[in-house]
Amino acid sequence: MKTSKQKKIKASDFDAAFDEGEVTEYLDLRSVKAQYPTQRISIDFPKNILEEVDIDAAKIGVTRTSLIKMWVAEHLSR
Question: Packing angle between helix 64-76 and helix 47-60, nearest 10 degrees?
Answer without folding.
Answer: 90
